[in-house]
C-alpha cells in the first residue's frame, strides 16, 4: 500500500468508527470525516480530496435509515445520497485516488429475486423493493458512476454489498435505526419500563443475513489487501428470521415480557440471501455466530447508553 493516507468518509457511523479504529491499530495513517464535511456540496468534496490526497478512499458516507425512514422520506434519501456519491467519486478521480472502496446496499437487489440467491451479476437487473427504492436507486447510481470512470482507467474500485451489519457504534435511534439496533433499544427500554410486550412490524417471517461488525471489517480489509475490483457481496451465508432475531435480542437483554407481531405494518423484503462464494473464494470467513454478536452488542449498548449515537 502507498504511504499516502487512507480517507474514510462517514467515519462516525457504524462501519466507519470500527474501521478507523482497526486501521489505526494496524499502523495506518487515517483521515476520518463525518457530518462536519457536507459532501452534498461539490466544493466541499473536492476540497477534502485535494487536502488529504489519499491513495485509498473508503466511501461510507450516506444518509441511511430503516424501513420507516426509507419509506417516509424518499425524496431526501434519494437527493442526499445522489449528491454525496456523485461529488465524492468525481473528487476522487480529480485527486487521482488509486482505489475507492464504496459501500453499496443489499436492499437494492431486485425485488424479483426475493427468495432466490442474490448474486453480484444480477444486482442491477430489476426493480428494487418499494419500501426503499429511492435509497436503492441512489446507491445503484454510484456503481454506474464508478464503473464508468473505471472503464476509462480513471480509478479502481470495489462496490461492496453487505448483509445486515450490526454492532458497537450503531445508530440506536428509536425510529430511524436499522433492525438490530432498533430492537436492542426497544427491548432494553421495555425491560427497564416493565412494559408487558414489545410489538414487531410484520409477522416475523422475513429473513435476513446478519453480519457482526468485526467480521465486516475483516472482510473489508481482506478485499483491500487483495485489491479486488468490481462488485462483491459480504455476508455470512446464514438466514435468520426476524422472529428468531427478536427472541435472541429479548433473551440477551433479559426482557421478560411478550413479543407480538403487527401484521398491518410493512416487513420489507421477505428474504434476502446473498451468494457469498466470491468473498469466500478469497479466503474470508465470518467468526461470530448471531447469539455471540448480539450478546456483545447488547453489552456494549448498556455500557454506553448515555452516549450512543441516535441519528
Topology:
Blueprint: E1 6-9, H1 14-25, E2 30-33, H2 42-52, E3 56-59, H3 67-72, H4 74-94, E4 99-103, E5 117-118, H5 133-151, E6 156-162, E7 164-166, H6 179-192, E8 197-201, E9 207-208, E10 210-212, H7 213-226, E11 230-234, E12 240-241, H8 242-253, E13 258-262, E14 273-274, H9 277-280, H10 290-303
Give an overview in words:
It is a single chain. With 311 residues, this protein is an alpha/beta fold. 41% of the residues lie in helices and 17% in strands. It contains ten helices and 14 strands. The protein has helices at 14-25, 42-52, 67-72, 74-94, 133-151, 179-192, 213-226, 242-253, 277-280, 290-303, and strands spanning 6-9, 30-33, 56-59, 99-103, 117-118, 156-162, 164-166, 197-201, 207-208, 210-212, 230-234, 240-241, 258-262, 273-274. The strands form five sheets. The protein has a six-stranded parallel beta sheet, with helices on both faces. It has a two-stranded parallel ribbon with strand order 5-14. The protein is globular. The two termini are 34 Å apart. The model has no long low-confidence stretch (mean pLDDT 94).
Amino acid at each position: 500500500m502507498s504511504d499516502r493516507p487512507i480517507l474514510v468518509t462517514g467515519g462516525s457511523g457504524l462501519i466507519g468508527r470500527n474501521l478507523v479504529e482497526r486501521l489505526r491499530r494496524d499502523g495506518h495513517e487515517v483521515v476520518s470525516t463525518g457530518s462536519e464535511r457536507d459532501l452534498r456540496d461539490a466544493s466541499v468534496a473536492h476540497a477534502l480530496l485535494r487536502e488529504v490526497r489519499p491513495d485509498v478512499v473508503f466511501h461510507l458516507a450516506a444518509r441511511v435509515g430503516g424501513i420507516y425512514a426509507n419509506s417516509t422520506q424518499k425524496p431526501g434519501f434519494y437527493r442526499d445520497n445522489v449528491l454525496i456519491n456523485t461529488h465524492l467519486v468525481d473528487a476522487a478521480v480529480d485527486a487521482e485516488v488509486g482505489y475507492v472502496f464504496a459501500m453499496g446496499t443489499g436492499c437494492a437487489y431486485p425485488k424479483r429475486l426475493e427468495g432466490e440467491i442474490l448474486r453480484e451479476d444480477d444486482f442491477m437487473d430489476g426493480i428494487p423493493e418499494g419500501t426503499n427504492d429511492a435509497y436503492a436507486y441512489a446507491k445503484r447510481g454510484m456503481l454506474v458512476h464508478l464503473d464508468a470512470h473505471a472503464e476509462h482507467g480513471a480509478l479502481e474500485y470495489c462496490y461492496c454489498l453487505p448483509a445486515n451489519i450490526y454492532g458497537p457504534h450503531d445508530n440506536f435511534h428509536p425510529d430511524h435505526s436499522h433492525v438490530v439496533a432498533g430492537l436492542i433499544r426497544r427491548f432494553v427500554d421495555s425491560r427497564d419500563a416493565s412494559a408487558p410486550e414489545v410489538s414487531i412490524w410484520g409477522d416475523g417471517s422475513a429473513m435476513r443475513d446478519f453480519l457482526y461488525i468485526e467480521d465486516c471489517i475483516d472482510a473489508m480489509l481482506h478485499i483491500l489487501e487483495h485489491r479486488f475490483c468490481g462488485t462483491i457481496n459480504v455476508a455470512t451465508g446464514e438466514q435468520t428470521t426476524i422472529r428468531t432475531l427478536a427472541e435472541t435480542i429479548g433473551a440477551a437483554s433479559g426482557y421478560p415480557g411478550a413479543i407480538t407481531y403487527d401484521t398491518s405494518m410493512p416487513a420489507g423484503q421477505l428474504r434476502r440471501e446473498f451468494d457469498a462464494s466470491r468473498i469466500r473464494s478469497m479466503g474470508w470467513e465470518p467468526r461470530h455466530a448471531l447469539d455471540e454478536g448480539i450478546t456483545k452488542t447488547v453489552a456494549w449498548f448498556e455500557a454506553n447508553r448515555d452516549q450512543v449515537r441516535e441519528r
